[in-house]
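== Sequence, C-alpha cells ==
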Amino acid sequence: MDFTSLSTEEMIWLGIGFSGQSLFFSRWLLQWFVSERKAESQIPVSFWYMSLIGSVIVLAYALHRVDPVFIAGQSVGTLVYVRNLILIHRTQKRAKSG
C-alpha cells in the first residue's frame, strides 16, 4: 500500500482503525499481566471494556471500508462483550444486595 497517495480523510481512518486494533490487542497484555500478578488465570472487567471499545472502533473502520468480513466479526464480538459486561454487573449487584 502506498500511503503517500492516501487522502487526509483516509489517513485519519487508518489511524482510527489502528487505534481500535491496538486497544483490542492490548486487552490480551492486560489479561496476561493480571494473571501473572495473581499467579492464576484471570479476566479482569477492564478486559471486557477494552474488548467492547476496541471492537466498536474497529467496527466503525470496517463500516467505513465496507468490509463485510470485519463487519460481521466485530458485530458479533461486540454483542458478546456487551453480554459479558451485563452478566458481570448483574452478579456484582446480587453480591452487594446479599
In short: Residues 3-97 form one domain. The chain has a mean pLDDT of 93.
